[in-house]
């Protein structure tokens, strides 16, 4: 879905969201309160410049609008695969973006991620997966790595990984699999305004992804391992 179509469905004409290259930023009024909006579009590759630009919006919101909820609109093909960005420290820039989102949460801002088109790799990890909760549209595409690339990294046959993906969401791309794993809390079906209202009201303060993954059967051991670590002397 195009971000303009999504914004019109969510806010009507009552928003000031602007596109600057691949960057989305601005604000919107919803149910009488103002939301900060930041994100990306056009399957954006997240390089140093774009990561820092998003981080700047988050930090300005924390500094200038204490407590204002933040909506992350996610459409990315992952990190920018370019030598320039590697030399400039893309890992640190993306980590900085993730830390600003964590700072906003700790400062009392509700942060909600929405995958409205595509979410791949590190561009998703340092945005939606750090929010209080991350939701998605049913037609969204989410994955960290395609099976052929996974086979090259793990040195396992593609046929084995394909077979595993049929029964284990960890090995499979697709929005439904991320719901099963707890990475995506819910899919927005039907009226997106109703879905946003529910998402803002129900966004958890504590990280529930491992627990949701256990209940949904997509990550059966993560919650238990987390608890063992917390209980360790």
From TrEMBL:
InterPro entries for this protein: ClpP/crotonase-like_dom_sf
Domain of life: Bacteria
One Pfam family, short name: MdcE
Protein's recorded name: Biotin-independent malonate decarboxylase subunit gamma
């Amino acid at each position: 879905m195009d971000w303009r179509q999504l914004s019109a469905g969510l806010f009507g004409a009552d928003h000031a969201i602007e596109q600057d290259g691949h960057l989305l930023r601005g604000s919107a009024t919803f149910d009488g309160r103002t939301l900060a909006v930041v994100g990306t579009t056009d399957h954006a590759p997240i390089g140093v410049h774009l990561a820092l630009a998003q981080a700047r919006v988050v930090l300005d919101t924390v500094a200038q609008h204490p407590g204002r909820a933040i909506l992350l609109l996610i459409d990315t093909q992952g990190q920018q695969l370019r030598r320039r960005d590697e030399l400039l420290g893309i890992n640190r820039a993306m980590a900085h973006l993730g830390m600003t989102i964590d700072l906003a949460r700790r400062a009392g801002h509700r942060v909600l991620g929405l995958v409205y088109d595509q979410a791949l790799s590190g561009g998703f990890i340092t945005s939606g997966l750090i929010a209080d909760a991350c939701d998605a549209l049913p037609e969204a595409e989410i994955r960290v790595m395609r099976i052929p690339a996974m086979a090259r990294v793990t040195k396992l046959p593609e046929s084995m990984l394909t077979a595993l993906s049929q029964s284990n969401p960890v090995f499979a791309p697709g929005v439904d699999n991320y719901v099963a794993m707890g990475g995506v809390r819910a899919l927005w079906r039907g009226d997106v305004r109703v879905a946003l209202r529910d998402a803002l009201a129900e966004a958890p303060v504590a990280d529930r992804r491992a627990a949701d993954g256990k209940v949904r059967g997509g990550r059966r051991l993560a919650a238990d391992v987390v608890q063992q670590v917390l209980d360790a002397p």
